Amino acid sequence: MEPLLLLREANKRGESVVLEGDNIVFKGANKSFPRDFATAYFPSRGREKQPYTLEVVWFLFQHADKSFREYVSECVRAGVNRVQIIDSRDLIAFFRGELDTCAGIKASTDAEERFSEKRSLSAPEGQRKKDSDSAIRDALSQEHEQQTISSLLASKERNFKYLVEEIKRLRKESKEQVSSVQTESKTSKKQQMDPRGDRYSIREDMFYRENIGAEVDELGINPSGRFGLSSTNSGTSLNGTRMMTSKETSASIVQSANLKENVPKKQMKNMTPIIVVPSGYNSLINILNAPEFLEKGNFVPWQSLKAQGIASVSWSVKIKHTSSASQPPIEYQIINNTSRLSSEDWKRVCAVVCSGAQWQFKGWPYPGTAELFADVRGFYFYYDDEQIDPNIRGWVVKCLPISRNKRHLDYSVALEFWRTLEAHIKSRKPHLKV
Predict the structure, then answer these.
(1) Residue 324: exposed, middle, or buried by beta-carbon count in 10 A (0-12, 13-18, 19+)?
(2) Where are the domains of the chain?
(3) Architecture category of domain 274-428 in CATH
(4) Domain Cell division control protein 73 C-terminal spans what residues (predicted)?
(5) Strand 330-335 relative to strand 349-353: parallel, antiparallel, unpaired?
(6) Count of CA atoms in the C-beta half-sphere (13 A) of 111
(7) Whole-angstrom Cα distance, residue 364 to residue 369?
(8) Centroid of chain to Cα 9
(9) Residue 190: its pLDDT value, please?
(10) Does 231 score more than 50 pLDDT?
(11) Percent of the chain whose predicted confidence (pLDDT) is above 70
(12) Residue 102 CB-half CA count within 13 A
């Protein structure tokens, strides 16, 4: 009989169950089992779910009247594994006869297998073979393939042929769609059949565009018309109308092509920003040293340049500056003579280097300095050990100090100049190409 049932009967009859050596002895039933005998009671939690041994179940049976905390303390003291609290309640109720069975009790137990093995050994040979086959079938029916993380991750078949076929199918569909769209586009753009026949079905418009340089419509030629008469042509036909001579035709074609080439050039406007510097020598920056300072960030006093023989240059000098916001360099024009500027050129004036004298702005198209510096950004350069000109203090200009001896500071001053100027152009003169 299963030890669990023997414990239930012993509790019902009040019989003693004791531990003698390595065996659990049932006095009333006169039976004994090894203390490590696997019972039919399995834990409800845990990965391995090994059945409780008879010693563990018997120890719970001995302390069934104690609280679970006291029971755990006794297990620790005796060195016996404990029954989980969720399993102990049902097992104690089973011992006391309150439950007929428990969820953790399984019908097939090690004890029954051992007893059946003993019975099979004492049974006839034919019966033993029959029982053995039956046991094998039962074992195979309950067999589960052992799997680990490595075995689950290992692919049984590494064949991705179906993916290749799917990609080919998608590519084929994509090509068919593109081909259908191109066919529809060609059909929609296809010209009407030439009434003169297929022998004249050539692209006259492309011929005139590539060889003459003008469109057919601009030349007044009808490619689908007949060779013959036109009321607007020069020359005389059989019915009195005039026809165009070959020389006149060639001349008109060339003239139309030249007109077409010249139109874009006339429409192009100069959008180069203009920076005005003082024309005299009463300012730190003038037409002599402005290009070197603004383009390279290197300040050279104009007195030194004059001593080197560079006494005069053109009234206009062009420099290039690479903006922080754009990679290609931007061309700027530096001038010192505003009398040569037209009304269109004044729209390109974006900055002026002030000398401090009011007469510098004589003849400028502004009623006063307030309107001037609202449209054109003013700058004033001075040595850092000198005072700012009193006239400059009343104007809205950017004052930039230059050191007499510390040339490594020149580059930062030039950067501040360009940063201020570019911000002004973007806000006040966005039409300039900056």
Answers:
(1) exposed
(2) 3-117, 200-223+250-268, 274-428
(3) 3-Layer(aba) Sandwich (3.40)
(4) 270-423
(5) unpaired
(6) 23
(7) 10
(8) 74
(9) 56
(10) no
(11) 69
(12) 24
pLDDT at 120 over 80: no
Supply the pLDDT for residue 206: 67
Average pLDDT, stretch 180-196?
65
Compute the distance between CA of residue 328 and CA of residue 273 in angstroms, rounded to an integer.
Answer: 15
Q: What is the pLDDT of residue 233?
A: 46
CA pair distance 342, 345, nearest whole angstrom: 5
299: left (phi over 0), alpha (psi -120 to 50) or beta: beta
| Distant-in-sequence, close-in-space partners of 328: CB < 8 Å, separation ≥ 6 | 322
271, HSE (Cβ side, Cα atoms, 13 Å):
11
Residue written as token pair 């139309």: 256
Tokens for 297, please give them.
Answer: 């960030």
Q: pTM of this prediction? A: 0.41
List residues bridging with 31 in a β-sheet.
26
- Alpha-carbon distance values, 68 to 12, 51, 397 (Å): 22, 20, 91
Count of beta carbons in the 10 Å neighbourhood of residue 335:
21
Instruction: State the angle between helix axes of 110-122 and 125-141 in degrees (0 to 180), rounded to the nearest 10.
Output: 150
Nearest to 9 by CA among 108, 97, 104, 105: 97
The answer on pLDDT for 159 being more than 90 is no
3-state secondary structure string, 56-97? HHHHHHHCCCCCHHHHHHHHHHHCCCCCCHHHHHHHHHHHCC
**Residues 7, 58 contacting (CB under 8 angstroms):** yes
CA distances from 412 to 150, 279, 406, 421 (A): 64, 25, 12, 14
**Mean pLDDT score of the chain:** 78
